[in-house]
Amino acid sequence: MKNILLVIAILLLANKMNAQGCSDAGICSINHGFQTDEKHHKNKLEFAAIYSLGEADVAYFSPYISYSKRFNDRFSFTSKITFSTATGSFGTRSQFGDAFLIGNYTFKEKSKKQWSVLTGFKFPFTASNLKINGYSLPLDYQSSLGTIDLFLGTNLNYKKWDFNAALQLPVINLNKNSYFKEYGGTDDFPSTNLFERKPDALVRATYSIKTPNKKFTFKPNVLLIYHLGEDSFENIFGQRESINGSDGLTINGNLISSYSVSKQSSLELSLATPFVVRDIRPDGLTRSFVLGLQYQYSF
């Protein structure tokens, strides 16, 4: 318990940093596709609400709903729909974000080791060019990055540990963002006109701690995300321009605490913050604080 309290204290302290965390480009949350501990029920619904703080005092409220179907001991399927409300100096913008379709296959356990693989897609509901009163908005105010993405991932479960790696590859760019910082009246956000995003690679390590009565589970984890190249935009002269410093490594710390309400339902609280950051994140996913509450119901 002392170790758990220490992790919580470190995360709360780190949240006071103005840094860059992981929001919902998708790669941070797809590890839910690996969670196949539930054997008695074939279906699972998740309802979640996430509150977070971004750059230039932009605040976010991002609920989502997810449905998972376990066909057998090997194969499962997860779908998710996101929504986002962003509030800041530009105003308030609310819109659906993305739809996720993820398939997961679990191999037979051998010597206390069990591998899983997943693949899936993310589909945007917008072209990332939502406006307020006719004014173009930076990606920090958009509910989606406007790309169709492919996910490829694998997971190793060993005793109380989970190690997973994944790639998020933008395969079709539908982004029609039209924001120029020259016309935005502020230097808080970079230009992202006709934004093009590079892929992300993820590595995560998670350790699970259960109380003796198995009512509470704590999962401290460390997440490394490497952005594989510099993003780009089309400048006011119609030329494509790379965004210096937009590639590189981000390291996030996350603590997930869950409570088993019954055999069919549970509550989950998550707290996340970044420890190592990139020089710039034009994708608008900068977060200094992320707090999530989730309810799961299995049937």
Description:
The structure is a single chain. This protein has 299 residues and is mainly beta. It has one domain: Porin, CATH 2.40.160. It has one helix and 17 strands. It has one helix spanning 2-14, and strands spanning 43-53, 59-70, 75-88, 91-106, 113-124, 131-132, 135-136, 147-158, 161-173, 200-207, 209-210, 216-227, 232-234, 240-242, 248-260, 265-276, 289-298. The strands form three sheets. Strands 1-2-3-4-5-8-9-10-12-15-16-17 form a twelve-stranded antiparallel β-barrel. Strands 6-7 form a two-stranded antiparallel sheet. The protein has a two-stranded antiparallel ribbon with strand order 13-14. A hairpin with a 5-residue loop joins strand 11 and strand 12. Mean pLDDT is 90; it is low at 3-21.
CATH architecture annotation: Beta Barrel
What is the number of independent domains?
A: 1
Q: For the record, what CATH class applies? A: Mainly Beta
Query: What is the N-to-C succession of helices and strands?
Result: HEEEEEEEEEEEEEEEEE
Assembly state of the chains shown: single chain
Strand order of the largest sheet: 1-2-3-4-5-8-9-10-12-15-16-17
**What number is the mean pLDDT?**
90
Radius of gyration: 19 Å
Q: Please, what is the CATH homologous superfamily?
A: monomeric porin ompg
Distance between the terminal alpha carbons, to the nearest Å?
32 Å
**Strand portion:** over 45%
- Put simply, the count of helices is 1
Which topology does CATH recognise? Porin
* Low-confidence regions: 3-21
Helix/strand structural class: mainly beta
State the total count of DSSP E strands: 17
Report helical residue fraction: under 10%
Main pleated-sheet profile: 12 strands, antiparallel, barrel
Q: Which shape, going by the Cα principal axes?
A: globular
